[in-house]
Write a structure and sequence with these properties.
Pfam family, one (chains A, B): Peripla_BP_3
Strand content of chain A: 5-15%
Keywords (chains A, B): DNA-binding, Isomerase, Transcription, Transcription regulation
Largest interface: A-B, 87 and 85 residues
Largest sheet of chain A: 6 strands, mixed
Strand order of the largest sheet of chain A: 7-6-8-9-10-11
Shape of chain A: elongated
Organism (chains A, B): Actinosynnema mirum (strain ATCC 29888 / DSM 43827 / JCM 3225 / NBRC 14064 / NCIMB 13271 / NRRL B-12336 / IMRU 3971 / 101)
Oligomer: homodimer
Number of helices of chain A: 14
Number of strands of chain A: 11
Radius of gyration of chain A: 26 Å
Number of domains of chain A: 3
CATH class of the largest domain in chain A: Alpha Beta
GO molecular function (chains A, B): alanine racemase activity; DNA-binding transcription factor activity; transcription cis-regulatory region binding
CATH architecture of the largest domain in chain A: 3-Layer(aba) Sandwich
InterPro entries (chains A, B): HTH_LacI (IPR000843), LacI/GalR-like_sensor (IPR046335), Lambda_DNA-bd_dom_sf (IPR010982), Peripla_BP_I (IPR028082)
């Protein structure tokens, strides 16, 4: 590996050794340009002698793969660590990339920085494609990525039909339906829901799924609150629900850490879970088993979704054979200790 | 931005328009090569007409910054999502990178893939430097990175003095000392410790810090178990401690999710926390406040550590002024509900 002493060889070293310009080395390696075969061979010989190999940068210049996917997350960096999805999704993406030696280029941006980040990724050819998450209502990313010619795959449901490939579980609202059946079977009739933010596609779709599932039993939710994904906001929403005139006996939360905040809120209000209140989370993060009572939740295959998004992109790029893409597991209800018979 | 229709312009388009080779365009943009000034200007004019700008790849070729740091994590992708440090550390790194428009290139590798990943990052010039975490006993990364000429900054303490810049809190074992003082003040005399894996530098250093802190009160730990960082392994270690002949009345865990698993284990064994057992975590993840009882823990500024590592690297690269590097907050004890008077 390299020459002793002064670090790795550069294209300039190769050019000097071969007695040509840097541009000629680039041309020789790329097999383009207008070099004589003799010059081309002299350059390649110099490169071999010095142990120089064209870098990913050079490879990118001639249109091959960079070996990285991008993930641009639009949020305050401080909120990342409380994001329940992030680590699981990255885990899934990495499980597809790691065997290929590919990496995941992560960019955190604020609202204004999102478009700039995608333009920089495309113009700089820093990634071969991007994974999109958190599908938004009137999502501007699809048009932008088409303009940039940057391949993408979306985890979730686009706000309207779009040519960007999407990955999601088959029968993706089955978990919510099962949760409602479980709770109705336990005698619950007054349901509350603490949903995610209004601008997320899944907030609206899950709320609709909940209404459909309740409607099948002749029920409607007694109270619904939209909330940010962080436990603090969820605690505020939970307190509103649990101190309202028509207090629900069962509350479904948009994710597990919001449900965990709901458990804390109930405890502070002196409301016993599951004796007086049943609580259901969403996602089934490792957290659920560590809570007391352990959290009943709708398991979502977040790792599988991240993996499927990466494999879909890689298959589209011709890097892997997409035929082997395993299906994302459909959501299922995991019953633990936070749900019980409705109070009389 | 670009021509209508067929995506962004390429270096080949510029070469064709200027009537030169691709290599000549590269040479013109890099200001190297042996082009006449006339040719150089013709190339730059063509580039401007087409809206083509040299990509990050091209910039990297001529030695400027790529605009990315690397983070190579050596672990099973499946374990990432249960890693308590990962999201916090990435949050800190991103908080330094985001304002610059820089990204973080993440690579998950197995044991054998680590060296290969670093070599690929260096050879491909994919990053400007790497953040190292999880300092290991006989860590092979320092020598490797020196050989590769890849700048690095380590979060934590190196296993032996090393020229790689390191970031850590001042007075980094103060939190453990405070935890021991708190528990001794509550009457505890029988201490247990569930540490991290043996090959981590901090496992050994924290164990030594605990022994020193106990020694100051004429005490020694009654039982110590090494454990993997995942809750399952921690639960096994906790069960061993809590069913041993000389059961401790206070147990310190290496991180918060391990301590959460300890709470679950105690509950299953019918041991009341904090009535019969005090439990202390480490890190102060958001999880702590969601547990019941809420977890007393040693707060570590993981976000600050990640940020400091990134800023140190960026300052070393001359990208930011390191003089403004704020200090990492020293560890402190956060007392919640999981610690109480020793049982009589």
């Amino acid at each position: 590996m390299g020459r002793a002493g002064s670090g790795r060889p550069t294209i300039a070293d190769v050019a000097a050794r071969a007695g040509v310009s840097v541009g000629a080395v680039s041309a020789a390696v790329n097999g383009k340009g207008r070099l004589s075969e003799a010059t081309r061979l002299r350059v390649l010989a110099a490169a071999a002698e010095l142990g120089w190999a064209p870098s990913a940068a050079a490879v990118a210049l001639r249109g091959a793969r960079v070996g990285a996917l991008g993930l641009v997350l639009r949020r305050d960096p401080d909120l990342l660590s409380s994001d329940p999805h992030f680590a699981q999704l990255v885990t899934g993406v990495e499980s597809a990339l790691a065997p290929l030696g590919w990496g995941l280029l992560l960019h955190l941006v604020d609202d204004g920085g999102e478009e700039r980040a995608y333009r920089a990724l495309a113009a700089g050819r820093r990634v071969d494609g991007v994974v999109l998450t958190e599908s938004r209502v009137r999502d501007p990313r699809f048009a932008l990525l088409r303009e940039l010619g940057l391949p993408a795959a979306l985890v979730g449901t686009p706000w309207r039909p779009d040519p960007v490939p999407t990955v999601r579980a088959r029968d993706q609202h089955r978990g919510i339906t099962r949760a409602v059946e479980h709770l109705v079977g336990l005698g619950h009739r007054r349901f509350g829901h603490v949903s995610g933010p209004e601008d997320r596609v899944h907030t609206r779709r899950r709320r609709a799924a909940l209404r459909r599932a309740l409607g099948a039993h002749g029920l409607v939710p007694v109270c619904v609150r939209a909330s940010g994904f962080d436990p603090g906001a969820a605690a505020v929403a939970a307190r509103e629900l649990l101190t309202s005139a028509e207090r629900p006996t069962a509350v479904l939360f948009a994710n597990d850490s919001m449900a965990a905040a709901g458990l804390v809120t109930a405890r502070r209000l002196g409301i016993d879970v599951p004796g007086e209140l049943s609580v259901v989370g969403h996602d089934d993060l490792p957290l659920c088993e560590l809570l007391h009572p352990a959290l009943t939740t709708v398991r979502q295959d977040l790792v599988g979704l991240g993996r499927a998004a990466a494999v879909t992109l890689l298959a589209g790029l011709g890097v892997v054979d997409g035929a082997g893409l395993e299906e994302v597991r459909p959501p299922e209800l995991v019953v633990r200790e936070s749900t019980g018979p409705a109070p009389r």
